[in-house]
Amino acid sequence: MRLFVSFIIFFSLGIQIMSAQARVSDQPAPIYRLTVVQHALQAVNFQGHSGPPEIDLNGTVLLPRAQGTAIVEVKNGYTKIDLTLKRLLPPTQFGTEFLTYVLWAISPDGRATNLGEVVANGSDKASMHITCPYSTFGLLVTAEPYFFVPYPSEVVVIESSVRHDIPSAEWKRCSPNMRSCRAVSTQ
User: Fold this and answer.
1) Is the CA virtual torsion 143, 62, 136, 107 positive or negative?
2) 66-90: per-residue pLDDT in tens?
3) Which of 16, 68, 102, 178 is the right S-S partner for 57, CB 3.0 to 4.6 Å?
4) How far apart are CA 32 and CA 95, in angstroms?
5) Is the pLDDT of residue 150 over 80?
6) 137: nearest Cα among 92, 80, 91, 98
7) Domains of the chain with bracketed CATH
């Protein structure tokens, strides 16, 4: 009789464990998986050009259709940037905590400077006319919870890329990260 009772208890525990495993496997899979990729951004020295150079802005894997241009002109003591972006989707697609986009200038030594909030004009386009304290930098656009954040988030949606008409001697590589930015190499 004891053996029979022990067998029934053991059998019922086995059924409970199997049903718990079945419940775990019945749960839905995550909506997306996060892959962190770290790479260097190309910073360009904008001084000494015959005219204001234009750089391309391309979407990352998070916002691949986004694109834009920036016309950069170094003046006496400051740098003027005229930025246009298109195909911006709402930042909430990256999570409910992301409410806006922010434009960042990344210096060759890795310092990130918040240049302002990127606001779409009621469609999927945005434009900005801003100044920057650097003459050598790269540009990033990140999704952020609010516009006045001190450091860029990991949600980089757009980054600058150097055009072929800008000599490679005028670019440097910089590597921004969330809390502290530092250069990975310089040319």
Assistant:
1) positive
2) 999 999 998 888 899 999 999 999 9
3) 68
4) 11
5) yes
6) 80
7) 41-185 (2.60.40)
